[in-house]
Amino acid sequence: MNQQKPPNKNNLKNVALLSGIAFEMGVIIYLAAKGGIWLDAHFNNEKRMYTAFATLIGVAISIWIVLRQLKRIKY
How far apart, in whole angstroms, are the C-alpha atoms of residue 28 and residue 26? Predict the structure, then answer.
């Protein structure tokens, strides 16, 4: 018969860690984009260069944070 092992504490911790990654990425990218929008409005930039640059920086930072968190996961 096929018996399943009960989930251990380490697996539950990993699930909790992974479930927060999407939220963290979204918040970081959102805040970076909002900062770029503010910079464009402050300097009267019509081409939205600051928004594009800040969003790309936000994506890079969020990917770096995700990779750092994935290294901590123990299988």
Answer: 6
Contact 17, 72 (CB under 8 A): yes
Residue 4 amino acid letter: Q
Rg (CA), the chain: 19
Q: Tell which residue, 61, 34, 28, 30, has the closest CA to residue 50.
A: 34
- pLDDT tens string 27-54: 999 999 999 999 999 999 999 999 999 9
Full-model pTM: 0.79
What's the CA gap between 38 and 24, in Å, rounded? Answer: 21
The pair of three-digit structure tokens given for residue 48, joined into one six-digit string: 């939205």
